Amino acid sequence: SLFDIISGFQRCENFVVFGPSDPIVAVLGGNIMLSCRVSPAMDVETMELRWFRSKFSEVVFIYENQQEQKEGQLEQYTGRTSLVKDFLSRGEAAVLIQKVQASDNGMYTCFFRKGSFYEEANLELKVAGVGSAPQVRITGPEEDGVQVVCMTSGWFPKPQVQWRAVNGEKFLSFSETYTEDAEGLFSVEAALVVRDSSSRNITCSVLNPVLDQKKTMAIFIPEPFFPQASPWKSAFIVSLMVLMLPLIGATYYTKREHTAKRQAQQEWETLMCPFSGWKKAQLYAVSVTLDPESAHPSLAVSGGKTSVTLKDTSEDPAEPCSIVGQEAITSGCSYWEVEIRNGNRSNWNLGVCRGDAERQGWYREGPEKGFWVVGKYEHNFCALVLPNDQVICEEIPQRVGVFIDLEEGDVSFYNMTKNSHLFSFSLPSSSGTLIQTFKNEDLLWFPEMRRHRTGSGRRKSQIPVPACDQ
Questions:
Q1: Transmembrane stretches, by residue range (predicted)?
Q2: In this structure, are strands 67-69 and 380-383 parallel, antiparallel, or unpaired?
Q3: CA separation (Å) from 191 to 51, 150, 175, 447?
């Protein structure tokens, strides 16, 4: 065999080496042990132990003369391997690999030698890593439909992408482009053309096939984004096939078809080009899931973790009732809408906050505290800024849109009942990870709660109140 040629060793029946029969799964960045054992069980501490890749010379780790030998070790394993000695006396030996990399994926051989006798076993290491949450956005008209693109990075091995409609039906026809970075991690961009305007709620799921773990992001495509079908297209095709019009007729219809398509394109461009404000924001619509573990005990989460209400309780919570979203916002753009019921009957606010922002007790929101929120206080709708809240208007919106652009450093709020802008904050570059936040400061059946707020620092602004449609 190869080892007979290299070293002149002889095999014998004194012992055999066994490795795990199933592949070992390691998570990127974690630690993993590659373990083998001899049979019959015996003390292997005085043996030569070697783990290598496809060739005997591709050394992962060597233990000889009861100490680690670094000579010949592959550079990628330098400083990342060590021997687990706990069970050497019982015939078990394992090498620990720290900070697992994508390049660690593949086959290994563990080699045991005692005197002139040797034996080895093969084992497989499957490295797996879950990448970033997918970002889904609308890119424009395409083939009488709307093209949406799903992008994500940092996966290993190559992930699987799946598009679904709100009813669970899979979209089978879409394009995928994979790229691999210097560390061997995969990025994918999957483009889908949605032609049926009834399928406006679309979900992109990215799956790691080894870990069977996936990350999902949804997008809502507003009706106006679907190009109107040209009435001339079907007329042209039918006329051409059935009547076989002369060339001049075909030219006429072709020109009309071109004109109609150009008109449809211009209508789309008219809709798309001035994308600013809420129109631009809706391109980045995402689903928001509330985190029940972050909810105040007086709050009830329902509707698939998308709705929160005050519980009907006689206990005084003695502090604001707040909850945050489950999904962290770390890059790109995100937009969601919040429907507020009975918004005039209590003090509340919504928006985003830093993941490490203090939310215990009677805390004071503001950008300096890591909160970018708007809400109803006293009789006004305000943006919460220090030292005094900035009054936006007296009318309380029933539906508020929230848009975050981390690249531009912007948090904007919109009155989606009137499709108008309410207020915008500037985000510092050091804002870090953000999460959605929702807070209610009054329970209507506890009128004494207002007395508890004495000295909280919140004062009624003397700024003249503008109209909400400004």
A1: 232-253
A2: unpaired
A3: 43, 6, 5, 54
Identify whether residues 42 and 181 lie together within a single domain: no
Helical (H) or strand (E) element with 413: strand 410-415
The one-character DSSP state at 446 is -
Q: How far apart are CA 96 and CA 45, in angstroms?
A: 16
- Rounded CA separation 88/71 (Å): 22
DSSP state of 22: S
pTM tops 0.70, yes or no: no
**R_g (Cα) of the chain, nearest Å:** 32
User: Do 445 and 299 fall into the same domain?
Assistant: yes
Stretch (H or E) spanning 82 = strand 81-84
Q: Same domain for 395 and 299?
A: yes
Q: Do 265 and 325 belong together in one domain? A: no
Total domains in the chain come to: 4
State residue 262's pLDDT score.
61
Domain that holds residue 168: 135-225
Instruction: Flag whether 350 is in a domain.
Output: yes
Tens digit of pLDDT for each residue in 423-439? 889 888 777 888 898 88
Please identify which residue in the block is written with the tokens 């999904």: 327
Listed as ranges, residues in the chain with pLDDT below 70 are 1-13, 228-277, 313-318, 441-470
3 state DSSP class of 289: coil
